[in-house]
């Protein structure tokens, strides 16, 4: 991402990418709900993203003018869901939990997109109307 944007834009951008990854994993879980032996997956990235943001903030304070991209380097952890019951056919997909996770992820994705749109609208205002 270009460095004309602040850390918030970088974090929101990375969050959207990671939420898209989570959406794909949840969709895969739902699609395989009837597949014998399928193990439901989980995506975690929130803690890693929060740590990267904090690291970038500390870096910026100790190295003024330097650029760190810890946020862009955040990778999601994808693993088999350990908190789920196994059915007789070995499948671990719980449709109710997957649908709830899908709804939550969708809301958070849309919120991040709206925040980016607001920040871009502010920048547009500053460029076009701010000097009047």
Question: Can you walk me through this structure?
Answer:
This protein has helices at 7-31, 46-62, 95-128, and strands spanning 41-44, 77-80. Strands 1-2 form a two-stranded antiparallel ribbon. The model has no long low-confidence stretch (mean pLDDT 85). The protein is mainly α and 132 residues long. Helix 1 (7-31) runs antiparallel to helix 2 (46-62) and helix 1 (7-31) packs antiparallel against helix 3. Helix content is 58%, strand content 6%. The chain is elongated.
Helix and strand topology:
Layout (H helix, E strand, L loop, with lengths): L6 H25 L9 E4 L1 H17 L14 E4 L14 H34 L4
Helix pairs in contact: 1-2, 1-3
Feature tags:
132 residues; two-stranded antiparallel ribbon; 6% strand; mainly alpha; elongated
Major β-sheet annotation: 2 strands, antiparallel
Distance between the termini: 29 Å
- Widest beta sheet: strand line-up: 1-2
Written as H for each helix and E for each strand, in order along the chain, the element string is HEHEH
Overall 3D geometry? elongated
Number of DSSP helical runs: 3
Supply the helix-strand structural class. Answer: mainly alpha
């Amino acid at each position: 991402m270009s460095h004309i944007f602040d850390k918030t834009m970088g974090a929101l951008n990375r969050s959207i990418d990671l939420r898209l990854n989570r959406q794909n994993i949840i969709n895969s879980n739902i699609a395989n709900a009837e597949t014998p032996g399928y193990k439901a997956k989980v995506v975690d990235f929130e803690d890693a993203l929060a740590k990267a943001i904090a690291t970038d903030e500390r870096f910026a304070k100790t190295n003024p003018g330097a650029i760190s991209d810890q946020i862009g380097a955040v990778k999601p952890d994808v693993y088999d869901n350990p908190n789920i019951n196994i059915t007789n056919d070995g499948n671990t997909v719980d449709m109710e939990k997957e649908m709830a996770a899908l709804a939550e992820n969708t809301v958070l994705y849309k919120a991040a997109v709206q925040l980016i749109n607001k920040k871009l609208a502010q920048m547009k205002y500053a460029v076009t109307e701010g000097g009047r």
